[in-house]
Amino acid sequence: MEKIHRYKLILGLIIMLAGMFSAAFLEVNASVSILLIVMGMVILVMTAFRLFSQGDLPDRDERTKKLAAYGITYSWLLTLVLIMVLYWAELLDLAEFTAEATLGILLFVMVISANVFRWYFMQKGDVE
Prior knowledge:
Blueprint: H1 3-25, H2 30-54, H3 62-91, H4 99-124
Helix pairs in contact: 1-2, 3-4
């Protein structure tokens, strides 16, 4: 296990424990404690998933950087199509979106689709 993975696992554990400690012993807003616990869990799970899925393969090399760049590019194009769909849905009164909902949808789609495209290209081996 590389040092960076070890440090990320420890950081996730510390953040999660800080959230639990603040929920149990401090009088703070509950959302702060929940945010800390969720943030720590996400760091812990993502680091563990990355560690076990990649094994001893290099974390970053030219091929993975290229595949990540293509994944982000495809995600950006998908987001442009989604913006156009949301615009037409709003214009034709098919749905009403608030600014918060629209930004949330776009953020969610961009993050998820970038990782899905990256994963797809990694499984495929290369981008054509």
